[in-house]
Design brief:
By secondary structure, the chain is of the alpha+beta class. The protein has 4 domains: about 180 residues, Jelly Rolls (Sandwich); about 110 residues, Jelly Rolls, CATH 2.60.120.260; about 325 residues, Glycosyltransferase, CATH 1.50.10.10; about 70 residues, Maltose phosphorylase, domain 3 (Sandwich). The strands form 7 sheets. Strands 11, 12, 15, 16, 17, 18, 21, 22, 23 and 24 form a 10-stranded mixed β-sheet that branches. Strands 5-4-7-2-10 form a 5-stranded antiparallel β-sheet. A 5-stranded mixed β-sheet has the order 9-8-3-6-14, with no helix packed on it. It is an enzyme of class 3 (hydrolase). Pfam families: Bac_rhamnosid, Bac_rhamnosid6H, Bac_rhamnosid_C, Bac_rhamnosid_N. Its EC number is 3.2.1.40.
Length: about 725
């Protein structure tokens, strides 16, 4: 039974093309039907469920959003999408078509293209209903026909092949073969899509076009982005398109970050010009190589992302600080599709760890409640009977160990509902995910060896697994505290989890903390994780923060940490008001780090600290924790301790370094929260806006504090 009574009527079953069934690695299927509208159409609603990626059109005009429907575990569930198409129907015959591509539903490896995962759940298929009323009364869809179309192949990461010579005749649908029943997973059910659709959010013009060889042109769109390339092609053209994030010194593209195999599109036009972009995949790129034309065609970059509402803004007087915010936001946007992905080029998978590690930067920039609630549903569906959770969901193609079971990935089921509750006051998400969280934590506790979690990735830095038992077990200790707090808020007995946490902390201390409070090898990563996880006493923690800061300064602000320790490092230094050190991390550019990325031309946050000088993803948000410091400490927008939903806030800006001004805003459920400060002529001036139904404490840099209610307020004090 489907999860929603409004799901498309499946009495006619899932449909596909007989020609495609005979050659499932060949041209992609197109379904079509014709309806007759008598008079004026009213209240027309089209519902489509597609297995793979679908493109729905009426009278040749696309009505679906890009890359529908989104990620699910196709063995058990697919989503249907709903469109109001009243304005698209005309008097007389109307042609309805659905084109189908494989997406992650049927991801097959080929010799010519890079493929990250391999899946084969069944036939590419769709089911659909169109309900409307006209002068003849209520109506619905009739017989479906099916053929194959101009999309000859499509690979979710490898690219797409298109040939306009195979466009089907939409005026002759009745002569197409009848659509045939499709083979689909037996337990498959349908549910309504609940997240924002993917939309074009920005259009980029070519910043330069270089002919590197006769017939080979390289387009630079100016920034790294995720989405579609769109070209205006002449008649009878055959072109090959290769995306890239990097250039060689010669000006040729360097496609190394695209994957461990070729990534390209081919496009053939017929007797008329054609404006083309992919339909069944997307790319992460800055550069596009175009081969096959004497002159470069007009090209645009269509930036695609989930249409989540923007939540916050930030700017400052410091060029590095402001630019870092921009490239972090761009990396978030580039990976905000039906789920937050790791990267928009070689993988496009829903890894879980970054969702909680850098949750604040997602929240500051976008309204992420529905996107992350949907991800948590998929996490619940993915849990194994043992309680195990994987690194990414849906886990279409399981990774081998040690990739499959790291605690910082699975523990998103504990941390993320709590973070969403703090932001949005959403008790429903806490309740919905609590049992899954408990089962996962019990699985981790049972899997320990001598009190420690000994497997996983540790402080993953894009290259190496580091400090695995220490990081894994310390994170478990922190999660147990959050689980206890969750139980308390839900009116359950959290005492058990506090007790278990104390025991796990004891195991960590016995193995990794000396009697005088030193941690492991005293690396920056170990110190940051130990402080953040609460495995030190209060006195040990204060001393450890001093040692941590001294080590960072002695290392020349070199960020020798992975994504686990980086998130911890920012929170620890900020909570102890070590803002000058955090500011220097944005400035130093001689060694790999934030400043180094900017110095070497990064336009989105990179996967590793050496950014454009190293061939890993140039579009990852996992190391973007510094953006939280910009909002929460430089501008000073913070929740009060114990608050849920931003009803009680603290505005506590902290000027530092060479900053002379900063401003941030955040749209809460009650209105806009804003902080804007400037230092001029020896005076610090702060303007704040407090939303309705909100109480605020404003603390100036000199320590003076004020309690204020909703409205706009100005404060002044001597600078410095």
């Amino acid at each position: 039974m489907d999860d929603d009574a409004n799901a498309p009527d499946r009495r006619t079953g899932w449909m596909t093309s007989a020609a495609w069934q005979q050659d499932p690695d060949g041209p992609l299927p197109v379904l079509g039907t014709v309806i007759e509208v008598t008079g004026q159409a009213r209240d027309a609603t089209l519902r489509v469920a597609g297995l793979g990626v679908f493109v729905a059109a009426i009278n040749g005009e696309i009505v679906s959003d890009p890359l529908e429907p989104g990620y699910t575990d196709y063995a058990i569930r697919a989503e249907f999408c709903t469109y109001d198409v009243t304005s698209r129907l005309v008097r007389g015959p109307n042609v309805i078509t659905i084109e189908l591509g494989p997406g992650c539903y049927r991801s097959r490896k080929t010799e010519d293209r890079w493929t990250k995962i391999e899946t084969a759940y069944g036939d590419l298929a769709a089911c659909a209903t169109l309900d409307w009323t006209d002068d003849a009364g209520p109506n619905g869809l009739g017989r479906w026909h099916a053929t194959t179309g101009p999309a000859r192949t499509a690979n979710w990461v490898g690219g797409e092949d298109y040939d306009a010579h195979h466009e089907p005749d939409l005026q002759a649908i009745a002569s197409w073969p009848t659509a045939v029943p499709a083979k689909v997973p037996a337990e498959l059910r349908l549910s309504a899509k609940t997240i924002p659709p993917i939309r074009e959010v920005q259009r980029l013009s070519a910043q330069s076009v270089t002919t590197v060889r006769p017939g080979v042109h390289v387009v630079d769109f100016g920034v790294n982005f995720a989405g579609w390339v769109e070209l205006d092609l002449p008649p009878n053209a055959q072109v090959r398109l290769r995306p890239a994030e990097l250039l060689e010194p010669s000006g040729e593209i360097n496609p190394v970050t695209q994957g461990w195999g070729p990534v390209f599109h081919t496009v053939a036009t017929a007797d008329t010009p054609r404006t083309w972009h992919p339909r069944f995949c997307y790319n992460g790129l800055r550069y596009l190589e175009i081969t096959g034309l004497p002159d470069a065609p007009a090209a645009r970059g269509l930036v695609l992302a989930a249409a989540a509402d923007p939540a916050g803004t930030f700017t400052s007087s410091d060029a590095n600080v402001t630019e870092l915010h921009r490239i972090i936001r761009r990396a978030i946007t580039s990976n905000m599709y039906s789920m937050f992905t790791d990267c928009p080029q070689r993988e496009k998978l829903g890894y879980l760890e970054q969702l909680h590690l850098v949750y604040p930067i997602l929240r500051w920039n976008y309204d992420v409640r529905s996107l992350l609630a949907n991800t948590l549903r998929i996490v619940r569906e993915a849990q194994e009977p043992s309680g195990h959770l994987a690194l990414y969901v849906p886990e279409w193609d399981p990774f081998p160990d040690p990739w499959r079971g790291d605690v910082n990935f699975g523990l998103a089921i504990v941390f993320l509902p709590w973070q969403l509750y703090r932001t949005y006051g959403d008790l429903e998400l806490l309740t919905a995910n609590h049992d899954t969280a408990v089962r996962y934590v019990e699985h981790l506790l049972a899997a320990r060896e001598d009190g420690l979690v000994t497997y996983g990735l540790g402080d993953w830095n894009g290259r190496h697994f580091r400090y695995v038992p220490f990081v894994a077990t310390s994170t478990l200790a922190r999660a147990l505290g959050v689980l206890a707090d969750t139980a308390r808020v839900l009116g359950l007995d959290g005492g058990r989890w506090y007790d278990v946490r104390a025991a796990v902390v004891g195991d960590v201390r016995q193995r990794f903390v000396t009697p005088t409070g030193e941690v492991g090898s005293e690396s920056v990563a170990e110190l940051a994780v130990a402080i953040h996880s609460g495995v030190l006493t209060a006195a040990e923690e204060r001393a450890a923060v001093d040692r941590l800061e001294r080590r960072i300064i002695a290392d020349g602000y070199y960020l020798d940490v992975g994504e686990i320790a980086m998130a911890a490092l920012v929170e620890v230094l900020a909570s102890y008001d070590r803002h000058e050190t955090l500011y220097q991390l944005t400035q130093v550019d001689e060694q790999p780090g934030y400043g180094y990325m900017l110095r070497h031309g990064a336009t989105s946050l990179t996967e590793t600290w050496d950014g454009p000088t190293f061939g890993f993803s140039q579009n990852h948000f996992m190391n973007g924790a510094i953006d939280d410091w910009f909002f929460a400490h430089v501008a000073g927008l913070r929740q009060a301790a114990g608050d849920a939903g931003f009803r009680q806030v603290v505005i506590r800006p902290r000027p530092c370094g060479a900053l002379t001004s900063a401003a941030a805003s955040y749209r809460t459920g009650y209105g806009e929260l804003r902080s804007e400060w400037v230092i001029s002529d020896g005076q610090f001036t702060l303007d704040v806006a407090v939303p309705g139904q909100t109480e605020a404490v404003v603390e100036l840099p000199d320590g003076t504090s004020y309690e204020v209610g909703s409205g706009e307020h100005r404060f002044r004090t001597a600078a410095g």
